[in-house]
Amino acid sequence: MKNYKYKILVLSDLKKNASSTLKSSVSLANMIDAEIALFHVKEHIDILKRDNQLSSMRTLNDEHKNIKKKIHTIVNDFSKEYNVKINGDYAFGKVKEEIEKQIQIHNPDIIVLGQREPAPFKLLGDSITRFILKKFKGIIMITSNENTLVPNEKVALGVLNGSTKFLKNKLSNDLITHSKAPLKSFRILNSQNLNTPKLNEEKMVEYVFEQNDNAMTTLSSYLQKNNINLLCVDRDKNKANNTINADTSLKEVVSKLNVSLLVSEA
Fold first, then answer.
1. Are 198 and 206 in contact (CB under 8 A)?
2. Are 265 and 165 in contact (CB under 8 A)?
């Protein structure tokens, strides 16, 4: 049996964007040599809220069959197409408790979350996302529903505001090896810091924007022009609002950028 370098835990709602989330996860797994565990959890109340007591057991049995079938189908399809190890599992219960159990069981290096619907603005307000950011100190990938990573193709990689934690992370060499050159750096600075020296990374192109009301719109435009589909950002474990720098918050980045994010270790 092959020994993989890393473990990825994908938390999926098994809804319409589940395939795009898993596709990006497979792409990441291929780049860093990782195995994938797909996990879905549903609260009993979501299943039984419209059923009376007599029909509840039948409803639960039907849900077991439906979820098993969905997971089996998506896992088999992706495993065969991209030759990557994927294990699928699910649970009924309290969502946060079941997710925490899975984190303890798998001890993943990376957790993958998909964008929540109907709008990305609500993502960091989502209690599950906030829960993961609080409980899991490892790397988190928040995938874009539209701008997905493509397995076996090089990723267009960008880093935000230096992302020094990413550049020093053990995954960085594998990611950079499988990324398109040159590496792109995007920095948002207030007017007093615009003359801050650029990063000394070789073969890196850097774009610097002034912090203002249109900064995120401008950044989003440049990400699109450069076809960036994975943006690396740092989080500061000492700041409750997950501040990336003095002017830019992780919530703002998630809500306004339609690109997959790779959030650093805490």
1. yes
2. yes
Q: What is the pLDDT of residue 119?
A: 44
Which residues are CB-neighbours of 131 under 8 A, at least 6 positions away? Answer: 96, 99
Instruction: Mark whether 220 and 123 lie in a shared domain.
Output: no
Q: What is the pLDDT of residues 208-237, one digit of tens each?
A: 998 888 999 999 999 999 999 999 998 864
DSSP per residue over 85-120, as a string? Answer: -EEEEEEES-HHHHHHHHHHHH--SEEEEEPPSS-G
Containing structural domain, residue 229: 157-263
Q: Is residue 139 located within the same domain as residue 14?
A: yes
Do 11 and 121 fall into the same domain?
yes
Long-range pairs for 99-105 at CB < 8 Å and ≥24 separation?
A: 99/11, 99/39, 99/41, 99/128, 99/131, 99/132, 100/135, 102/9, 102/37, 102/39, 103/9, 103/135, 103/136
Task: With respect to residue 204, please indicate whether it lies within any of the assigned structural domains.
Answer: yes
Q: Quick one: CA dihedral 11, 12, 18, 19, positive or negative?
A: positive
The model's pTM is 0.87
- In this structure, are 130 and 24 located in the same domain? yes
In the predicted model, residues of the chain with pLDDT beneath 70 are: 1, 44-54, 116-126, 163-164, 191-203, 236-248
Q: What CA–CA distances, in Å, run from 165 to 20, 138, 211, 232, 265?
A: 27, 12, 22, 9, 8
